Amino acid sequence: MDDVDLGGFQSWKSLGEISGETIYYRKIECYNDICWNVDLEECIVSMAPFGGPVAVAGPNPKKIVQMTVATGKKIRIFTSSGRLISQFSQCEGANGTIHSLGWTSEEQLTTLYTDGLICTYSIRGEKRLEESLGANIIDAAYYPDGLVVLVEGCRLRHIIYRTEGRKRRLEVTPFADVGLTQPPHAITCLTPESLSTDIPLQVYVSPTQVDHMSGTLYQVNDRECRDLQIPLSYILRVAVSPKRTHVATFSREGAINVSRSNMMENVINFDTRSFEPPNQLLWCGDDVVVGIWQPKQVKPDGTRSVLVLISPKGTAEYTFDGPAYGVSEADCVRVITNTACYVIERVPKSAVSIFANHSLDPGILLRDAFADYENERASSVKSIRGLDSQELKQAVDCCIEAAGHEWDPQIQTELLKAAAYGKCFCKTYDADTFVDQCNSLRVLNAVRRPDVGIPLSYGQYQALSPVVLIDRLIQRNLHFLAYKICTYLPDMHKKTETVLIHWAKAKVRTDAPPEEIVRGIQEKFQLCPGISYKEVAKMATAAHKPAIAERLLEKEPKASDQVELLLDMGKRDMALEKAVSSGDTDLVYRVILKMSKRHNADGKIHEDELFNSIKAHPLARDLFIAYCEYNDTKLLEKYYDAMELNHQLAFRSLRYYLNSSETGYSIKCGHLQAAKERLPKRSVDFTLIDQQETLYTKQTTFARNDKIKDKSFVGESVAGTLRLMFKHRMSNKEIDKFKNEFDIPQQMFFWVKLMALIEFGQWKELDAFGNMKKCPIGWKAFADECLKAGRVEDAKKYAVRIEDYAKRCEMFCKLEMWAEAIRLADDEGEPGLLEAIQSRCPADSPHRATIRTLLSRY
Amino acid sequence: MASTPLGLLREYTQKTILQIFDGSSVSVLCIDAVMKGLLTIALNTTDLKEALGVNSLVLVEEPEFSLEADSHEGMVEGLGPGSKIVVMISNKMSTLKATTDLVKLIKEGETSKRRTEITVHISPRNTTTADFIFNSEGIDKHLKEVVDLDVDIVPRNDDFLSMERSDCFRELYIENDISSLYSIAKAILKLQLFTGPISKIRRIGPHASTTDTILSQMLSETTDIFASQPVGIDTLFLIDRGCDLVTPVLYGRTYHGFLLELYPELLNNLGDFKPDFAIDDAPKEMKLTGEIFDSLKDLNFFHVKGEILDTSAAIKEKKSHIKKDKHKMTTKELATMTHQLRSDLDLEPQLMFHWNVEEVLRKKTEKPEFIDLKDIELHLIKGTTPEESSITEMIETLLFGNYPYTSLLRIICLYSHCNGGLGKHHETWKVLIVKQYGVKALFQWNNLQKCGCLITTEKKPKTSKFHMVRDMLQLWDGAFNSQRVQRSMVRSPAHNTHNGFSPAIPALIESVTTAPDYQRKWSSHCDGVFKHLPPPVSPQKDSPSDLSDRDKPRVVLLFFIGGITLSEISAIRNLKAHIDKKDLPQVSFLIASTSIVTGSSFIESVIRV
Predict the structure, then answer these.
(1) Least CB-CB distance to A586: which of B129, B401, B432?
(2) What is residue B231's predicted lDDT score, i.e. its pLDDT?
(3) What ipTM score was computed for the predicted complex, to two decimals?
(4) Which helix (H) or strand (E) holds B131?
C-alpha cells in the first residue's frame, strides 16, 4: 500500500476501497513548534475531545524514568497548541500520587489519586469538587459523565458527576462483583446515550489468567456481571467506537479484533505481529481502529512512536518523533507529540472529488474553471458551460462542502471563491448554505489559531454547537473572541449577555481599582440593554468587594434580583428601600418577612431594627400592618406600642371587644377599659367607648334580669336597647332614666318609640303616645309608619294633624282621602296641588269632575 | 369579537383556565369571589361546575368558606381516594388565610384510604407572602404545588374589561395594601401583548402614579414582544378612584345604573334578569343583553320609554310602508325590506320586556324614601339649597327614621364633599350614628374618613373643592330635560347620566381628548383641575406636544383603579357616539377597571369591619 501524494497537499493514505470508492486518510499538522516545557514521556497526559485542552501531570508512576525538575508536583493544562491555560499544585489532601486524569463533557478535569481521592478542577485550575473513596485505586476508566474505578479488593465503583441546579456533586455507587482477585488487564466503559436506571452504564473487564476465570471478557453493570464468551485469549486492551456500535480488542497474541458491540460478529481480525500491547487503543471515527505504540525507554537516537490505522480493507502507519498521545474524536483522532499536534482524519468525499488527481467530478471542473478565470483564460466560461445546471449546482455544493473540511484558510478561500464563481452561473441557488459555511469557517479559523488552540473540525463544530463553543471560549477567558462570535453569528445575540457577565465576573476578581472595574463593566454592559448585573454583584460579594457589589446593584434592572442580593449581603435597609421604590409589594414583604424572621441570641425578633426600618417607609409600614392584621396581631400591638400609636391600640382593643367570642363580662369590659386608657379623656371616641361600657353593663343586667331574660340586649346599640325596652314594656321611669343616661335626643327617642310600638303591635300605647300636642318628628312620620304597617285608620288620624299643608295633601292622596285632599288644595288656593291630585286620582273617580270644576275657576 | 385583540385575550384566558382541568379529573374546585367572577365571564357560563367538569364548587370566602348547593362537610365526605382538588384564588391576604383553613379542614377529614391531591393556583402570581403563610400554618406539605395563574383581566364586552376585584378600593385606601396595583400593572402589560404597545401614559391620582412606576419596572424587565399592529393604544389614562369620590356615592341615573341600584345581584351574574312582576304579554325573564338593551342601557332612565316608543314606531312604520308600497317596490327591494322587517320583529319581545322593566323600576323609584334621597342628592350637587339647615334636617330624619344605612352614609359623604367638610356636624353625626347603629359604626366612620369618602374638616371653606371642580369642568348643566325630544339639549352627552350632572372623569377626558390641541391641553388644563381633586396630585409633565398626527384616529384606554360606575361607562360611550357625530378628532375608547361599583357596593366594601 503506497501513500498517494496529491498535488502538494497532505500525504493521504489509502485504506482500501469500499463500494468502488477509495478511502483516504490524511494527517494534518495543526500546530508545530510546540513547547510544553515538560517531557510528555515522563507525564500522565489526558486530552479532552472536541479540540479540548491537554492536561499534563507528573510523574507517571508507570514510567520507569527519572522525574525532571520541570514536572514537579504540578498539574498543567494546555491548549492543543501548547499554550499554558493554567497550572496548579496537586491536591494537598492527597497522600498518594496521581493515578490518572480524565475530562468531563463540561471540560472539567478529574484527578484520581492512588489513595482514592478524587478532585475535579475547572479549566482555570479552580477546584470544584473533592471526594475520597477511602480505598486505594488499582485502575480507572473514564467516560464523559463520570468514571469507573477498580479499588483495592478488586471491587468496581461507579462515580457519576451530578448537577442539580447550580450545585455539583459526585455520586458513588457500587458495581456488580466480577470475582477478580488480581487487577485485570483492562477496563473500559461502554456509555449508553444517556444514563438512566433503565439503561445502566456497562463496563468491559478483561481478567488476567491468574484469576482462572472461564471467560476473557466480561460485561459488568451495577446489577450483573456477564461473560461475553468471546473465543479469544486474554485481552490486554479494549476500545469502544464513538457511536458504541463496535468494540476493538487487543489480545495477548498480538491480534486486533473488532466485533459488533454484541460480540456476535467479528469484523476485523488483524495480526499486529507484536506481543507488546499498544499504549493506546483508539477509534478514528467509527470506521478505523488506531493503535499507538510508544517506546518504553527514550533512546539517544530518538525512538519513533508508531500509529497504525486498521480498517477491514487495509492498514496505514504514521510515525512520530518521541512519545505520542491520542484522543478519539467523533470524526478523527487527535495526536500530540513533544513538538506538534496532528489530526488524522478520513478525507471527505468532497475533498477527494476535488483534489484527487484522477477525479473528473463537477467539483474539480469548477475549481479548474475558476483557476482559468483568475488567470484570465477564456476557457473558463467554456468549462462552466460544459456542465449542465444539475452538475453545476453539484459542483458548487461540492466546493462549499470541501471548503468546510479544509484546515488551511488559503485553500478554504480558493474553494469558496470557486463556489461563488459557479454560483453566478446557476439560475437559482439558495445562498444560505454558502453564507452559513463562510460564517462557520470564519469561526473555525478563529478558534484554530495557535493563541486560542481549539483544533475543531467542521463536523465537531456542528456537533458541539456554537453555543457550547462560546461557553468553552469564556471558560478560557477568551471573552473578546467569544463576544465577537456572538455578534457575528446570527441568532447568537442572546449569548452576548453570558459572555459579558462572565467577563465581568472575571474582571471583578482582578486587583484593579474598584472605580475602574465598575466603570469598565458599565461601559461594556451598555452594549447589551437589559443585561443583569446580579451575577456580577454576587461575585463581587463573594470576592469580599461589597462596595463594587453595591454600585453594580444600583444598575441592576430587575428589582427582585437587587433585593435578593442585598438581603444576602445583609443590607436589609437598602433592600427595603429598593423594594419600596420598585412598588412591588411582594418584594417589600420578602424583606419584611426576612427581617421578622431574624432572631437575636435570646430567640426574640430584632424588633427595634424591624420597627425602625419600616418606620422610614410608609409603604413598608402599611404592608407590615396589613400582614400583621391577618397573621400576627401581637407583633402589631408591639409595633403600635413602640411607635406610641395610642389611637390604633385603642381601636385594636375595641376590635377585640367586638370580635371576642368570650362572653365573660369582665373580659369584654377589660377590652373596653384598655381602649379607654389609650385615648385622651376629652375626645369623642373616649366618650363613646365609655358610654359603650355603661351600655354593655346595662345590657348584661337586662339580660340577666329574671323578669326580662332576653340575651338579645347584649350587642345592641343605644337605639336598639331602647327598642327592646319598649318591647318588654319597661316602666316609663326606667326608660326615661335610660334616655337621660345616654343623652338620647328627643327626635331619636320619638322615632325609636314610634317604630317599636308599631313593630310590637302596642296600639294602645301608640294611641297614648299620639295624643301629645306637639310632635318633634312631625305627624307625617306617624302617618307614614302606620300606613306601612297597614293601620290605615290610624294613619288617617295622624294625617289630618300634619302641619305642612302640601305634605298633608300628599298624605291624603296616599290614603286615598280624595275629598279631603281636594278641599285642602282649594282652601289653600293651590291649582298645582289640584293638578297633582288629579293625576293620581283613579280615572273613574267622581272626584275628577270636582277637580276639573275647581281648576276652571283659577 | 374572536379575532379582535379582546377576543384573543378572552381565548387565551379560556385556554389558560381549561388546561388546568384538561384530563386531570378534578373533583373539587375551591375558588374565591374574584376568580369566580373572572371564570364566569371568561367562560361565559353561569354553571362553572358543568363548564369545568368538577363535582363540587367551594367558595373560599372570608371569614369562612361555603359550598355551593351542598354542605361543606359533604364536600369532604364526598371525596374519593386520590381526589384532586384545585384551589384558584387571588393573592389577597384574607383569601390566603381562608385557604389555609380550608386545606386544614380537608386534611383533617382525610383517612389513609382517602388521600387528596391539592394544587393551588394564585392569580396573578405566587408570592413570598403566600409561601410564608402556607409554611407557617404548616399546610405547604399538603400541597402538591403552588403555581402562578395568569388570569387577571377579562373582557366583559367589546369595550370594557374587568378584573373583578371589587375590594380593590378598600385594599388600597383602607388596608393600605397596594398589592393589587401589581396585578393591575401586570394586566396592562398582558393587554399590550394583544393590543400592541401603549404610546403615552397619563396618570390621575397617587395610585395611578404607583401603577405607572410598577409598569415601567415591568417593561424594563420583560422580554415579551408586544403585538405590533392591532389596536395600538395611543394613550392610557390611569385613573385612581380616589380622585373622584362623589360619582360613586351618587345614584345611577342611567337605565343600567338604576337596574344595578335596585337589583345589586345583577352585578355578579351574566345578566339573567327576572323582574318582580310583569305585564301580561311581556316575557317574564330575559338576559340583559341584545340589541335593544345595548341601545337603552346607557340612556338616562327618563329617556328609556321614549327610545322604546321610537323603536317600536319605526318598526310599525316599516310594516305599513311594505303594506302600502309593496306594489311599487322591485322584488329585490321587497325581499330586503321583508328580511329587515323580520329581524326587526324579533326585537319586539325585547321591547316588551324592557317596557315592563321600565315600569317596574319607575314604580320602585317613585317611593318617597327614594325621592327624598334623589332630592337631597341633586340639591347638594347643584349647591342651590337656600338653607343648609333644611338639608341637615333631612339627613337627620334619614338617620333617625331607619333608612337604609348605606344610603344614609352615601348622603353624608356627598354632603361632606359638596360642603367642603362636615364642619360642626362631624362629631354630632358621629355620636348619633354610634347611638343608632352601635359601636361598630366607629370603625365604619373611621374607614370613610380614612379613604377620603368623608371629609371632616372643622372649618368649612367658602366654596368646596367639589364645587370648584364642578364649575371648572362644567359638570352641571341645567339644560337637562327629562323629555326625550329635548335630550340632546345638554352641553355634553355625559350630563344625561346624572340628570344634568356629568361625572368628573369622563368630563375631564372629554375636555382633553376632544380639544384640538390635545397634547398641550393635558398639562395646561389638568393642572388647574387636579389641585382641587382629593387627594391632591400633580399630573405627569409631558414632553412638547406632537401635533403632527392629530388627525390620526386614536385609541384611548381608560383604566379606573378602584372601580368604575356604570354612569361613567355610559358617559364615555355616549361621548364616543357624540364624537362620531360631530366633526371632532377621531378617538375610540377602551375602558378597563378593577370592577364595576354601585353606590351601595362601594360603601359596603369601604365600611366592612
Answers:
(1) B129
(2) 55
(3) 0.85
(4) helix B128-136
